[in-house]
Amino acid sequence: MELRGPVVAVEEPRTVNTRDGTRDVAEITMRPGRGEEPPVTVSLWGSWAETAELLVTGMTLLVTEPSREEFRGEARYATTAESYVVVEPEFMVDVTDIREWVQCSRQYYLSKFTSASLSYPLVKGSLVHEVFGDLLRGRDLETSVEERVADAGLKLGLLDRDRTAVAEDVQSNARAIERWLQQGTLTEDDEWRSELTLISETFGIKGRADAVRRGDPVELKTGKNTDAEPRFEDKVQATCYALLLGEHGQTPETGTLLYTKNAVLNRTEETGDLSPAKEFSIGPGLLQFVVRARNELAAMEYDISVPTGYESNAICEYCFEQDTCMVVSGRLDQESKAGSVGGALPSAEREYFDRMYRATETERREIHREYAKLWTQSAAERAADDKALLGLQPQGRSQRVDGTWELRAENDDTAVSKIREGDTVLASDGHPTRGDTELGRVVRLETDADGTTEIIVHADEPIELRRLDVYPSDYGINGLLTAMHDAVLKGSQRRRDILFGRRDPTFGETNATFIDNNTAQNRAVELAVTANDCALIHGPPGTGKTYTLARAVRALCERGERVLLSAFTNRAVDNALEQLREQGFSEFVRIGTEHGVSDSMQDARLEHRGEPEERAATLRNAPVVAGTAATCGSSVLKECEFDVAIVDEAGQLTEPGTLAAINLADRFVLVGDHEQLPPVVRDDDSELGTSLFERLIEQYPDAAVTLDKQYRMAQRIQYFSSQTFYDGQLRPATPAVAGQQLAELSAVSSEALPSALQDAVAFVDPNGAMTGNVNRQEADRVAEIVDAYRSAGVAADDIGVIAPFRAQVAAITRRVPSEIDVDTVDRFQGSARAVIVVSFVATDTLDSPIFEDRRRVNVALTRAKKALCLVGDEDALRSDPFYERMLEWAES
Ligand SMILES: Nc1ncnc2c1ncn2[C@@H]1O[C@H](COP(=O)(O)OP(=O)(O)OP(=O)(O)O)[C@@H](O)[C@H]1O
């Protein structure tokens, strides 16, 4: 039995005399049943009374196992010895955050700004952890160390570390583990699990336990500890895992900490307890303590306030982070237990930091809401939302060379989901939080001609693969905060003057001609090459953005500048590199994962594995380094410096997302189109919804150039977009572009097309009906239209179909040959087809927008080169002035 719902009133805690002596109690009123039921009073006893001080009305509270009694016809509840009180249970706190919070609340806050810094202790720490996992999976120590150290070649090289010395260091730490594993206390049937992903519905805590032995948590620490007891914060961490494990069965009573460095200590020099493994008992007091610590953290994040350090008992004098802490409080004018140094930043910068911090944390909260849906939504609801693939039939599993597992399954269902190859997912035997779950990577997800989908997932442990769920990761959030911190607190004065509108960007001069057949493109390269601060290149659809960008990269390199080439998506990064190759330039390295990078760029991909010095040199000496903006915040790229950062698709990046890339360079060039897809944010009113590109282009029109000649669309097709989004400035680059026709494609005879499709822009009303997000009649009609183009000789890969909703995408996919690309707008951005068919789905009235944003329509309509067919309900479209104008153009 539990009470879960919003708090409606809170009373101050008081001390009362009871049969058992004096006790604290606080009374609160809440609406259980997630706010559906009438208010009830709950007495929070003992140490839970303190929790009442954290509460404000509106917060969600969870009380487990309360007692209930009737008092004058009213139900009254109270906490019992078994109860837990959880503040904002849907706010998912990571176990490592609780550990940090207990050490120092300020340190928890500061660590948001130092994500992904490269340091030897961190790299060594993860190597030892990996080796530990390997040993548990039965790999032999020497092979494991050798392999893992080789895999970390690049990072070790950037840290100027020698491979053999690192291997020895890791090996000596790992020996402690090996010896402990071999101790007589362990028997053959000792049950082990490594790297267990745990998500708690009750406590709002998630984490990955290093290992679980016979149901008890084992945590690995690469430091030393010569006390008999584990360190308090380490106990806190292991206790969190115990709490999470208890949710699925028995709560463990013992936790183990393995201090690997103890094994390396010299017994003649060190005194104390040198044994690496230290056990401790986990009692109710400790379990409740970690929940209370988590509650404090969740309450602080509820209103996104900044901790002062007084929330925990840390002693600042002993803290390694004291200086950083004081600088941050000084610069941002924050109250801090450690005090502060230096003057505050100008108020505009502090306000900006504050706004962006709040917006980013709000995004985190939205991601956590997604987490909660893992259990608040039923399996069917998740499948209907495209967030899960259910009912998979396991097809076996096998251990891979590195000891991890390949899990195979099949699915006959035609269900679609957002899950794609390369994604990190929650793979489970039935339920993502209640079942046996592993965090895994989808390496294959392919549907064959008879509709069977083959699924392969790589994971640490061999589970039965029956279900996949989208994993709502907040991994990137700290990257955004770090980028913002680095830009505002560490950025040069000159850069900040530009970002905060205090000085106009300046340019040098050049007499060179870079592109001789397109004035705007030539001007764009000129700006990029001569910019002392920044240049902005606005590229409407098909105007040669990529071509111009590649030319600019080359021109900069010719002048001896080192260039960072970045974009929002992997695809755009690869497109730019392909264009560079076409222009005869190939001195670049590509940073990215094997899955992220396209096949054609695998040869340019920087391997991490190898000889450290050689790996680091390859990166350090490359004239051009390319990777997505998200990768720019990685520990590897943060070690690099560039003269110029060129960022494509800048209109799709949030401000902090853009800062991650431009922080690495002295000057920057943003390339994009703010009239196409905006940044994707979960909170509609978010400050993050406007890109830095859009803000700067409005602020500094003189630093910008618009490419105005497009090389893609027939004149008839481009007209609506040009008029509606580009003040009529967009024009075909050549008469050939303007006058292109379907009949120019080989084997195509346009006479074979039905008369309705003869025009370059056509409109068809299939008289369908929308149910949910699907319009079946319209899907049938789209299939007929695709068929008509095919019969007229258009090749399948020349046709693309775009629909606003995934459900309609699925409905159409089932009706057309598998070679035809059918997808949402986001997947089509940056590409084009000779023929594009757009399905609008909506019928009768437009209660909710078809494409959430007009800019998405712009993208959809401008993917077509020679023929565009709009399929939708005339009445619905005419009910909105924007779509009405679109119809008038289509029917003119
Ligand atoms: N100055 C030019 N001279 C000749 N061809 C050009 C020129 N600029 C671009 N093109 C050609 O026009 C086509 C479109 O260019 P590109 O792919 O660079 O467009 P884009 O603006 O990046 O498109 P998108 O809007 O999809 O990002 C390409 O085939 C490119 O080679």
Write the layout of secondary structure elements.
Layout lengths: L1 E9 L3 E5 L2 E10 L9 E6 L2 H5 L7 E5 L2 E5 L2 E5 L6 E3 L5 E2 H9 L1 H6 L9 H17 L4 H11 L1 H6 L4 H20 L9 E8 L5 E9 L2 E6 L10 H15 L7 E6 L17 E5 L2 H19 L19 H11 L14 H30 L2 H6 L3 E2 L3 E7 L5 E7 L12 E5 L8 E11 L5 E7 L7 E4 L4 H16 L2 H7 L19 H12 L3 E5 L6 H14 L4 E5 L2 H13 L5 E3 L21 H10 L2 E5 H4 L9 E7 L6 H8 L2 E8 L19 H8 L4 E3 L2 E2 L4 H11 L5 E2 L2 H4 L22 E4 L5 E2 L2 E2 H16 L7 E4 L3 H8 L7 E3 L1 H4 L4 E7 L14 H8 L2 E8 L2 H5 L2 H11 L1
Parallel strand pairs: 4-7, 9-11, 12-13, 22-27, 22-28, 23-25, 23-26, 24-25, 26-27, 29-30, 31-37, 34-35, 34-36, 36-37
Antiparallel strand pairs: 1-3, 1-5, 2-3, 3-4, 5-8, 6-7, 10-11, 11-12, 13-14, 15-21, 16-17, 17-20, 18-19, 18-21, 19-20, 32-33
The protein binds adenosine-5'-triphosphate.
GO biological process, one term: DNA replication
Pfam family, one: AAA_11
Organism: Halocatena salina
Account of the 3D structure:
The chain is of the alpha/beta class and 892 residues long. 35% of the residues lie in helices and 22% in strands. The chain has 29 helices and 37 strands. Strands 1, 2, 3, 4, 5, 6, 7 and 8 form an eight-stranded mixed sheet that branches. Strands 15-21-18-19-20-17-16 form a seven-stranded antiparallel sheet. α22 (715-725) links the parallel β29 and β30 (731-732). The termini are far apart. Bound molecules: adenosine-5'-triphosphate (ATP). Adenosine-5'-triphosphate binds next to α16.
